[in-house]
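Board notes (copied after class):
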Amino acid sequence: MKGRQIFLNAATTVAQTLGNACVLFFLYRFLIRSVGLERLGIWSLVLATTSVITLANQGFSTSIVKFVAKYAARENAEDLATLVQTAVISVALGIGAASAGLYPVAREILYAVLPNARLAEAYAILPLAIVSLWLNILEGVLQAGLAGHQLITVCNYLEFAGGVSYLALALALVPAHGLLGLAYAQTIQGVALLLVTWHLLRRRVPRLPLMPQRWSRAMFRELGGYGFHFQLITSTQALREPVTKALITRFGGLAMTGFYDLAARWVFTFRETIVQGNQVLVPTISHLQEKDPKLISVVYRESYRLIFFLAVPVFASAALLSPLVARIWIGHYEPAFVEFAAMLAAGWLVNVLANPAYVADLGTGALKWVSIGCLVAAALNAALGFGAGARFGGVGVVAATAFSQATGYGIVLATYHLQNRVSFRQLLPRESRPVVVASLAGAAALLPLFCAAYTNPRFSAGAAKGALAILMTTILVLMWRHPMRKQLFRWLYNQAST
């Protein structure tokens, strides 16, 4: 892939992530005021319960990116069209069967964790939640086909358009229909995106028919062979969220589940902003494995240095700004939101630092230790979450979630360095140490002070905000003087001017 195309893919990915984060901010602010936190907790729990459907899909989606790039490079249009149809038909049937089996199970889960007064509303939105998720999964498969053609920029436009349309539909339908209106909005958006994406993919692959109709056993096995380990990876990832939310609902209540969902979305936005730009390297590394494998270590080293430069101050800032975000988003200072944001920021920081290793393993197909790390994270999440929830309530569940996340992805990062003989000294780049010290020490010292200013009249809110402003300015100055900033700006200028 040309450097300019990598730049465009990464730039539009970051822009799309930030744009959809803004859309979600306004959507959740609207939902808190229109349906309330408890009903938002119902919606969050239903989505988490139905999200296990994704277990049957992600291996295929990732395989499509890799193998579409492979067949496109060979310029074999007929095989390419067959590959896409095989993937779409396989996922449509597999997800359809999984959805049918999930429905009664999801009803039982909701019955077990929700108060009786809330069951009717949850049961009403459950079928639409399953249908819309099925549509979104199919649309994701088609987007993977576009990504395999290096059209990640087009995928980003589609994602942002989908987010805006979802917000518009929710604003129109929720006031009259409540949570059912939100389910209608998600389903309508799913149908529209699926049709548009299929149209765009057919323009790129003219041999595709109006409706998928050709299925190849050989290509199904080729896709499945690569996708098996990744299927295991995404299965464990998909299970963590519903398990976490079910445990929080049981030990902390629906309102706490709502606060967790808000905190998770706040922190996850920073994770996506950093990581999604790096994900565009998967087809690049796959290409390098065929053409010049020695360059993969160079790509890993530089991508890790860049992500480390961004991730530590960004996640420290996410935790520090959470009291202000709570005031704006929820309408008042909420200790649970702030505590959850701080714990999740620590867990997701390790996840983000492991992403360059994760991406390199995806591109090369070396997924054994990624699978093991994700299995460890899922097992710890369930076991520790139950034990901590029984003893410490919902806060204990979230702490266990953050710890399991950090442990699992710490395994992924460490084993990549061991397998590829990469020095562990690279995990803490020398030039980034001042930024790390300022970010972590500042967050540890100021966050308690910032929270106290909202709850204890003896503490001055103005002084806390002033200290926060000084710390943020210090971090920004250190980042500005960082050699990676200069290298990044130089690269961006060169790519934008070509």
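Comment from the instructor: Residues 1-215 form one domain. Residues 77-113 form the longest helix (37 residues).
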